[in-house]
Amino acid sequence: MRIRPSTMDALTALAQTGVAVLLGREAVAQGWPPLDLAAYLLVGLVTVPVAVRTKAPVAVCLFTQLMWVVYITAGYWPVVTCFGPMLAVYTVAALCPVRTSAACAALMGAVWVYAGLLGNGPGGSMATVLAQAVVFPAVLWRFGLVARRSAELARQLRRERDERARRHVAEERARIARELHDIVAHHMSVISIQAGLAGYVFDSAPRTARTALSTIQETSAEALDELRRMLDLLRDTDREQPEGGAGSEAPGRDAPMPGLSRLAEMAERVSAAGVEVDLRITGDARALAPGVELCAYRVTQEALTNVLKHAPGARVTVALDYRPTHLSVTVTDDGAGGRPLQAKLARGSGNGLIGMRERAKLYGGTISTGPCSEGGYAVCLTLPTSARTVPPREDGRPG
Question: Three-state SS across the chain?
Fold first, then answer.
């Protein structure tokens, strides 16, 4: 159970008052005058203000020091009320600037010496009183400074933690934005081209129109599945599975994220949209870490989407090369389709290219984009794969 600071200060003041009252009963045994009603009132004036020490540390320190001087001047045992000024000096050192706290500590030492000069010092000799007047305030001041620096360090750590949390939220939002961009841009580009084709040949070539409409249906269904899957991942808490079991789940919820095994489907879809895609796979094909496969899939998807949007009619080669320690994906178009692709990309927002670079950086890979010497445009992605691999499926395809 956490106790509020104000409640803790009040309890501390109450405890100090109780200790002072009990200690005052030993004054006669220690050779000091007994505490009367005036003495107990002064004890309360020295210890009770400690209850608001964190709200007004300097004022509380000065007031307790003053009441302590009055108590000492009246001839009572100084030890009875020394705890209040000590705690007040510590509080000032923990909460106030160094100069202010040093002045309050020096004031306490002066009061301690004053008690010794009156013959009421807590020690047996003046040398002992002087030593106590230096050591006690210095130790309290030092402890207060350590507490102040610890509190500042804790506040700094909280600020850094909050900043990291905000940065992680921003990065997650950027990742989500890239995912939405990849899903919507690619599928909507295919749907737009196929819809235009269906409308153009609706009367003259019904079979081609039906094929285009079928492609639209499949592409839109796939886009909805991917969007549903992403929204499921964004939920703060998982829904409890219905009693009907897995069969009662919404469609597409348990479907895996896109991977390299679906590149052939993407190539067929883009080819149907008017951009011929030649998919070439070399090396020892194997299942890779899901993040690596998703990165390669999304980069290829974005590159093909750029060709669909900016160079329709071009021919594209997608080369997937499995190496022992890395995976490389190269998407190259032949430069057909009118204006050079790089010039058209320069006119856009550049979010697609930025997304590609961020994805590659996230998984420790590199990416290069630019025109080819023989014409066309190329996107080359290299991703490390040695960090995590899994055995291939029984059918030999990547998982």
Answer: CCCCHHHHHHHHHHHHHHHHHHHHCCCCCCCCCCCCHHHHHHHHHHHHHHHHCCCCHHHHHHHHHHHHHHHHHCCCCHHHHCHHHHHHHHHHHHHCCHHHHHHHHHHHHHHHHHHHHCCCCCCCCHHHHHHHHHHHHHHHHHHHHHHHHHHHHHHHHHHHHHHHHHHHHHHHHHHHHHHHHHHHHHHHHHHHHHHHHHHHCCCCCHHHHHHHHHHHHHHHHHHHHHHHHHHHHHCCCCCCCCCCCHHHCCCCCCCCCCCHHHHHHHHHHHHHCCCEEEEEEEECCCCECHHHHHHHHHHHHHHHHHHHHHCCCCEEEEEEEECCCEEEEEEEECCCCCCCHHHHHHHCCCHHHHHHHHHHHHCCCEEEEEECCCCCEEEEEEEECCCCECCCCCCCCCC
Q: Terminal CA-to-CA distance of the chain, rounded, Å?
A: 50
pLDDT for 13? 86
User: Quick one: average pLDDT of 136-140?
Assistant: 92
Please provide residue 64's backbone torsions phi and psi, each rounded to the nearest 5 degrees.
Answer: -65, -35
Cβ atoms 163, 113 nearer than 8 A: no
Taking only the tens place, the pLDDT of each residue in 335-352 is 776 554 444 444 444 556
Could you tell me the CA-to-CA distances from 383 to 99, 182, 218, 353, 398 in Å, in that order?
A: 58, 19, 30, 16, 16
Best CA proximity match to 269, nearest among 296, 227, 300: 300
In this prediction, residues 265-287 reach a mean pLDDT of 87
* Residue indicated by tokens 């029984």: 394
Residue type at 220 in one-letter notation:
S
> How buried is residue 193: exposed, middle or buried, by Cβ count under 10 Å (0-12/13-18/19+)?
buried
Q: In what order do the strands lie in the sheet with 276-283?
A: 276-283, 315-322, 326-333, 377-384, 366-371
Distance CA 197, CA 273 (A): 8
Q: Look at residue 64 in the predicted model and tell me its pLDDT.
A: 93
pLDDT in tens, 311-333: 778 889 999 999 989 999 999 99
Q: Work out the average pLDDT over 44-55.
A: 90
Q: What is the pTM of this model?
A: 0.47
